[in-house]
Design goal:
mainly alpha, Receptor-associated Protein, 3-stranded antiparallel β-sheet, 17 helices
Length: about 400
């Protein structure tokens, strides 16, 4: 037996949609005709899934995080106004300008019209709607408070995006300074120094050590620069491939967390995201184990993700969340204490939110400290290198003037 999704018109001329079980398309059409329906569209579940898989490539970029947040908030407003899920999805699809986005929302609406819950329909587009998103929608459907959950989800999306933007803006200036400094130094060594060297060669004087070192660096960069670049690219590729090994990935991510300032920064980012997500899921009625598994997927550090995996197994066996996480020695003590207090008081979701806010506050302070250290350090480094190049150029010129006088 196969499952077929159909659209049909009944005797009153109304359009209907649903799912039917049959051996083949011909039998499905016959069964529907016997119930008084005129089939306008029939598609097997297998074929529909194959089409969905082919569309994965465009799904990646079809809806950005900002657009998804706006769509979620609009959907919440429509639901809270009294419109049905089908009508809300139709209204959202009509107001979207991108054809790819329209196709996605129309696909979700077709799934809902076919009898699927909204959460299950969204899971058909995993590149667009993450597991946390689908879990919350599913919880909202089951509790009958879909509108409130969608509003909460839109707030969560905005908060997550702001957290990411905060980190990106903190690192943007150091990255730009590093790129500009590298380009200036390379340009000086490749284009400026060789022109000056011609003058030194004509004078046939003994050059200072710093000048000889500068000329050697310039010649090396001009002769072997392309090979150095290729070697760097190959090293990066080999390194990325080595990270596909789980053991190598865990070791690398563990070392990342031990970096001064930056390591704590990475912990703050992941723990803040994890705590806020778990808080929102629990407050929306998602069971603890499902909420933990969905929150785990928000972690970017593989070591922390493994720690949560082990904690989930312990919670499944009846161990408290605070005890399970504390056993992994991966979460900050303040977060563990807040979770333990929340479990005792029955106010876990609120205290998890407090833990997330505390981690965000630490993140802000540490990002400002890191930026405050990197910015002057990079400027001083760039100035020092340029100064050495200038000194290497000026010393022989000054010696030539002395010889003339």
């Amino acid at each position: 037996m196969q499952t077929f999704n159909y659209k049909a018109i009944d005797k009153n001329g109304k359009e209907k949609a649903g799912v039917i079980q049959a051996e083949n398309p011909k039998q499905a059409r016959l069964l529907l005709r016997n119930t008084g329906l005129i089939v306008s569209h029939l598609e097997s579940e297998k074929s529909r899934k194959e089409k969905s898989a082919k569309n994965v490539s465009f799904q990646r970029k079809a809806i950005s995080t900002l657009e998804l947040s706006l769509i979620t908030r609009q959907f919440a407003i429509l639901i809270n106004s009294g419109m049905s899920v089908e009508q809300s999805l139709g209204a959202l699809s009509d107001q979207l300008e991108s054809q790819e986005q329209k196709a996605i929302m129309s696909g979700v609406r077709s799934e809902v019209l076919g009898g699927r819950p909204l959460g299950a329909s969204l899971r058909m587009y995993p590149k667009i709607f993450p597991p946390v998103y689908c879990s919350l929608v599913n919880a909202g459907e089951q509790s009958g408070s879909l509108g409130n959950v969608m509003t909460k989800l839109a707030d969560y999306s905005d908060k997550t995006r702001e957290l990411t933007s905060k980190i990106m803006m903190a690192l943007l200036y150091p990255v730009i300074v590093s790129i500009v400094a590298t380009m200036v130094i390379v340009a000086l060594l490749v284009f400026v120094v060789p022109q000056i060297v011609k003058v030194f060669e004509a004078s046939k004087q003994t050059l200072p050590l710093i000048t000889r070192a500068m000329i050697g660096a310039s010649n090396g960069l001009r002769s072997y620069g392309i090979y150095m670049l290729i070697a760097i690219i190959l090293a990066v590729i080999l390194f990325m491939r080595s990270l596909k090994n789980p053991e190598n990935k865990i070791k690398f991510h563990r070392r990342l967390l031990t970096l001064p300032i930056a390591g704590k920064l990475l912990v703050n980012i992941d723990i803040a995201r994890f705590s806020n997500t778990l808080s929102m899921l629990l407050s929306s009625g998602v069971p603890m184990l499902n909420a933990l598994e969905a929150s785990r997927d928000t972690l970017s550090n593989f070591m922390l993700k493994n720690a949560v995996d082990r904690a989930v197994k312990m919670v499944r066996e009846g161990v408290g969340l605070a005890v399970a996480l504390n056993a992994q020695k991966a979460f900050p003590p303040v977060v563990i204490h807040l979770i333990a207090s929340g479990e005792k008081s029955g106010n876990l979701d609120h205290l998890l939110e407090q833990a997330g806010s505390h981690q965000e506050l630490e993140l802000t302070h540490r990002s400002q400290l890191l930026t405050g250290i990197l910015e002057p350090a990079l400027i001083v480094f760039m100035g020092a290198v340029v100064m050495l190049i200038v000194i290497g150029i000026m010393l022989p010129i000054l010696n030539m003037n002395k010889m003339v006088t």
